[in-house]
Amino acid sequence: MKRNFLILLAILISVILVVNSTKRLLTFRTTAQKVEETAGRLEELKRQNESLKRELEYKSTEGFAEKEIRDKLGLTKKGEAVVIVPKEDDKPSFAKASEGKLEPNWQKWWNLFFGG
C-alpha cells in the first residue's frame, strides 16, 4: 500500500513537472518571437532614422534653401530672368475656341442647368 502510494505520488509529481516545463517552453518560445519581431522593428527604425538624418542634413544646406526659394517662391538672383516653358499639351485659348462650336452664353447656361 505504501509502495503504491509512493508510485502514485511520483507519477503525480512527474505530471506536474511536465506540465510546468511545457508552459515555460511555450512562454519562452513566444518571448523569443517577440524579441525577434522587436529586433526587426528596431532595425527598420534605425534605417528610417538614418534616412531622416540625411534628409535633415540636406535640408539644412544653403543649396536646398536656394532651390526652394527659386522653385516655390519664383524668386531670382539679381540679373537673372525667369523663363516659363509651356507644356506641349497646352494649346492657346484661341486654338481651343476654334476647335469646338461657338455657343451663345445663354445656351451654355441652359446646358449647365438643364443638361441639354
Number of H- or I-type helical stretches: 4
What is the string of helix and strand elements? HHHH
The largest β sheet comes out as: none
Number of strands: 0
* Secondary-structure content class: mainly alpha
pLDDT averaged over residues: 87
Q: Which outline best applies?
A: elongated
In percent, how much strand structure appears in the residues? under 5%
Distance between the termini: 105 Å
**Rg measurement, Å:** 39 Å
What are the low-pLDDT stretches, counting only 5+ consecutive residues below 50? Answer: none
Helical fraction: over 70%
Write the layout of secondary structure elements.
Blueprint: H1 2-59, H2 62-73, H3 93-99, H4 105-114
Description:
This protein has 116 residues and is mainly α. The protein has a domain at 17-75. 75% of the residues lie in helices and 0% in strands. The chain has four helices and no strands. The chain has helices at residues 2-59, 62-73, 93-99, 105-114. It is elongated and about 115 Å long. The protein starts with a helix and ends with a helix. 0% of the residues are buried. The mean pLDDT is 87.
